[in-house]
Specification:
The complex is a heterodimer of chains A (about 150) and B (about 675). Chain A has about 150 residues and is an alpha/beta fold. Chain A has 4 helices and 5 strands; from the N terminus they run βαβαβαβαβ. Chain A has a 5-stranded parallel beta sheet with strand order 3-2-1-4-5, sandwiched between helices. Chain B is α/β, with parallel strands linked by helices and about 675 residues long. The chains are: A alpha/beta (about 150), B alpha/beta (about 675). The interface between A and B is medium-sized, with 29 and 20 residues.
Chain lengths: ~150, ~675
Amino acid sequence: MADLSAPQFRRAVVALSGGRTDRPIVALASDVARLSHAELVGVHVVEIDWTLPLDADVAGRSEDAQRVLDIAEATAEGARYQLETVLLQARDVGAAIVDEASERGADMIICGLPFRRRFGGDFEIGRTIPYILKNAPCAVWVVREAMPEEQA
Amino acid sequence: MADKRVRVERPHAAYFRYAGPGQLVAKPAASAPRSRFERQWLRAKAWLIGRPMASEEEIAERLPKKLALPIFSSDAISSSAYATDEILRVLVLAGAGALFISIEVAIAIAMLLTVVSFSYRQVCRAYPSGGGAYVVARENISQTAGLIAAAALFIDYVMTVAVSTASAVSQAYSVWPALYDIRIEIAFASIALITVANLRGLREAGNIFALPTYLFVGLALLMIGLGLGHIVTNTVPVLPDPADVIKPPDIVEEVSILLLLHAFAGGAVALTGVEAIANGVPAFKPPESKNAGNTMTMMAILLGTLFVGITFVGNRFGIQPTTEAGPTAIAQVSSAVFGADSPLFIVFQFSTALILFLAVNTSFNAFPRLAAILAEDGFMPRQFSFRGDRLAFSWGIVVLAVIAASLLAVFQGDVHLLIPLYSVGVFVCFTLSQAGMVRHWLKDRGPGWHWRLVVNGAGAVLTFVVLIVVASVKFAGGAYLVVILIPVLVVLMLFVQRQYRASERQLAVRPDYILRPIQREERAIVPVPRLNRAVIRAVNVARSISDDVVAVYISDDPDEAREMRERWERQVPGVQLVIVESPYRALAGPLMAYLDVLDRAWPPDKPEPITFVVIPEYVARHWWERLLYNQSARRFRALLVGRPHTVVVDVPYRRDEFERFHGMDAEPHPEGAAADT
């Protein structure tokens, strides 16, 4: 049962990292989207470094990249919802997600944040989510995974 | 950075989903029809039997106990509608006074039912993959004993369909005599109806059959309760003699052991269909064995209560046996209890007729499951183990319908001509399964094995005695046909197994055989049904054509696929295996879709590659042998002919080649499949 206090949206871009948070955020987004028949777009970005041209045949030949989207699609189907999937190549993941959301007129970007600490004990948020939080024109919903029991 | 992103095409996404490295799962679009004829055929099929279901939906198709009870027990429970008559018709030969012994006979049969159902409850626990008497006899006595049990069950299931249908139709034309001339057509239509219901899947069939079964059980229990009330309050109505009553003969027989055994054998038809639950354990929701065992107990309690209850109330009400044209014992009891003009009487009679008709459904569930188990063991053509679009064993369902309909046509729908062939098979199975369980306890010696052994031993002796009595009483009337048919079926099944074993021996790949890498240039795709000599030969041919060889294994079973991958990686290193999971069990569609995806993924600036599709094919020598082997190769060929940039390469593997070099009984060549290429 979806949480009725969860944010509402018409069209959301779900940022898929290929990590362990993908399934829970897709399931959660599907539950929420079902209530308002909202549109869900799963976006996975393969970062291309400067040594290769941006249109190098990298993601198309990568089973891993394809699998990230396929698993998200299957998770949404499991939650009885449909997820459109988009595979992008970009120099910067955060920028590509923000651009895609803007272009599609999304009113929400949903990101998953795994709980992790960098060496030394500080919480590690990475650089993609801060970029999205700073630059996204729409609302951003960051879902942090639960803290591991031994650290809680 | 705003324009620094490139959208990547995903040509596979319409048809497949990656489930793991090198592992694709086909989407419904991959099995979509490609020609107009195919589209129309699939549309018609979907209208008739429903949309195709994915293998993962099988668990949702499993039956809860409340649906499993009517679906697997309608045959057994419906026999309470006529078993009392069978006892009375024998006892009347010893005079009207002997009819009172019917209670003792019914109690004895109920005790036999207790023993048999208890035994089958143990079978459900011990053999959760189903199979009933066949599996118990095969595991504990011998393969031949198992096949005898299977043959007997097959005959009985076919007879159940034929007899019950003929009997239900006869109920209809006794009310409307005009229907007599079209009785065969009515029988065919009713068999077709049940066939379609079963092809639509277990759960839907359960939903259709649950209500009539529960209606009959509820009304019968009410009738017994009210009847007991009359007996206790001493208000038993005085019944007039029914029409077509069977009068005792002028010179009555003595109440001898033989007469009692005869009556016992007659009433023992109540036990037909009891074994169906044990055959269908995998159809239950988890925990399958426990749920099947509990359903078996519930069925035995209901059947025993109804049978003894109807016999007891009937006995105290003084009902009499009648000829076929007269009212049955259950009709006499319900008429006396509810009142001949009461709507309850009419509803009850209607529900009785309906449950007799639905008894057919037990066979439609048990026959295909038994056939599937035998097919997996290699005793029947493999097609019987394939699940259809709706996850039902379609081949078994259709074959049962065709044989039963043929029987009805040959015997012109005459119940009396069919009945003598009935119920011998059931007691063959009971005896073999009970004897098998005796040996099981002797080997297993688990907790309580002593008393279980005694129960099953007693059951084996009792059912064997009943078998002898039933077979001898009905022998001249037609049971001799069953006695001939059982060994014929056993020989046929052994023959099929011999054929499969011979082909497996010829196709076997030695476990230590490793395929050496060969460098070639072109792209070759090899659809592989399993790892065998024919496939190895096809792979070698593919490698001689191209250095880019991909084997495609289409599977609906993830466990099988995993095993296949392990074995493939060990035995065929250097040749990429792509596993395409096909939840809709389609073979040709996903293969075609995979070829399309490969073409689309090819860089557009390069010329189109030529794709060699190398099809391994085991060539049967005789036309009848073709029935034993999958015809996928022919389907692939038909679809691939005319496909752009595609060359179909047939790689036949002939039995003659094996024999010419090694002789029929030879072991595989020490060099394994390498010697063949």
